Amino acid sequence: MRKLFTILGCIALFTVATTTVKAQNYKNAIGGRFGSYNGVSFKTGLSKGAMLELIGNFRSNNSFSWVQLTGLYEVYNPIKGADGLNWYYGGGASVGSVKTKFNDESDIYLGVNGVLGLDYKFKGAPINLSLDWIPTLRLTPDTDFYSGDVGLGVRFTF
Predict the structure, then answer these.
(1) What domain range is 120 assigned to?
(2) CA nearest 134: which of 55, 27, 52?
(3) Counted domains in the chain
(4) Of 82, 101, 78, 16, whose CA–CA distance to 51 is shortest?
(5) What is the mean pLDDT of residues 56-61?
(6) Whole-number Å distance between alpha carbons of 134 and 89
(7) CA distance 66 to 59
(8) Other Cβ atoms within 10 Å of 152 Cβ, number
């Protein structure tokens, strides 16, 4: 799992280093995503009107520990009459791991994701807010559909 995160991190850094076109009013943004699953969010511009978002979620309690990385390709469209406000849609994939603490069992799971949301960049301030919905079709270890991941992103832009 550590090798996978290292490879995905290198891909993200390469994308940031070679990107020259902005998708919106900012090139990169990093911060938190709060909702069904809290985590860290990083966005970077890929081409005019598109961004890559990487979301790292983690959770641990007395019975299990869980980690997930989601990569999303997002297409942005401005909302006329509302400067700095865009709606976006897209898709991607997620990979994760869960380990139970009682019987020391673990599972690796894969999923296919969609995304639909609103994104706002404050004019004159390095702050970005987003509100989105990320439904997931889990492929492993069992196939199921999860439609409840709604989150608020709060990011610093640069």
Answers:
(1) 2-157
(2) 55
(3) 1
(4) 16
(5) 88
(6) 10
(7) 5
(8) 13
Residues 61, 66, 68: CA angle, nearest 5 degrees:
145
Cα gap 155→31, rounded to integer Å: 4
- Looking at residue 76, which CATH number applies to its domain? 2.40.160.20
Here the tokens at position 82 are 């509302």
Task: Name the band, by pLDDT with cuts 50, 70 and 90, for residue 24.
Answer: low
Summarised one tens digit per residue, pLDDT across range 95-135 is 999 888 888 788 998 999 999 999 999 999 999 999 999 99
Considering the entire predicted model, what is its pTM? 0.81
Q: What are 51's two structure tokens? A: 């961004």
Query: How many angstroms separate the CA atoms of 36 and 46, rounded?
Result: 27
The DSSP result for 69-125, as a single string, is EEEEEEEEEEPTTSTTEEEEEEEEEEEEEEEESSS--EEEEEEEEEEEEEEEE-TTS
